[in-house]
Amino acid sequence: MKAVDGVSFQVLRGETFGLVGESGCGKSTLGKTILGIYRPTEGSVTFKGREIAHLAKKEAKKIRKDIQYVYQDPGISLDPYWKIKRILSEPLVIHTSLSRKAIEKRIHKMLDEVGLSQEHLSLYPHEFSGGQQRRLGLARILCLNPRLVILDEPTSGLDVSVQATILKLFIELKRQFDLTYIFISHNLSVVRMMCQRVAVMYAGKIVEMGETHGVFSDPIHPYTKVLLAAIPVIGKKHGREKDLSLSGEPPNPENFPSGCRFWPRCGYKKGVCESVEPDLRAGVHGRWVACHLVNQ
What we know:
There is one protein chain. By secondary structure, the protein is an alpha/beta fold. The protein has helices at residues 27-35, 57-64, 84-95, 100-113, 130-142, 160-177, 188-194, 212-217, 222-229, 292-295, and strands at 16-20, 46-47, 50-51, 67-70, 148-152, 180-184, 197-202, 205-211, 281-282, 288-289. An eight-stranded mixed beta sheet has the order 4-5-6-1-7-8-10-9, with helices on both faces. The chain has a two-stranded antiparallel ribbon with strand order 2-3. A hairpin with a 2-residue loop joins strand 2 (46-47) and strand 3. Helix 3 (84-95) packs parallel to helix 5, helix 4 (100-113) packs across helix 5 (130-142) and helix 5 packs parallel to helix 6 (160-177).
């Protein structure tokens, strides 16, 4: 099984880079591979010019504080038997030599930055709402002053008003702490608002990548067209409904089709699509597309 296969991209310092695609396309696996939770069987991950995918445990630990991960379900990363004070202190105990007093000062500051108070330190994770748990997760990773933060479905399960508050917090923290984000999400409207560039994944591969405005306003790959056509538009007929020709299910990762992995569901396929796998190639205006209809 190849959950992520031949994916290659660059994230620039200070940007928010989006990853979108159907469930099971490999977005979260890719994020966890960058972090080091999973180790790639082939290929490399380069962070600030250094290869980090195959480091020894001791060296990987040094890098880990610079790359942090915000889980889709923040509650699963918070120990239910620990109070918040211990949860927030743990990363600083592991990765720094700060005194107890300095640690307390740091976690108090981070709680304030994410909109929580010192009174929350004596509580357990289950006593917080979903939005508050996300704030706790942010406070914990910001204690280490990371450079890259991977956000995995950071607004899932939240109502619209809480989503807006959390997204505003992401923007403020990014500016204040000079962060770089990889933003993994199903919510295309949020990706359009938050990300400068976006990559569209299908069956473990990137099929289209470029500046967010260009990808959303003029999608090139057939899968991107179908994906964006699914965005609901209130009050008027969707302009891309004619491109909606998707049927069937995503392929089994243990048995991908030959050629282009999207051809069994594509309404534009040709003979070459069934036998030859298209490469991800650069086009005009920094757009990258993996499609025979474009690259011929």
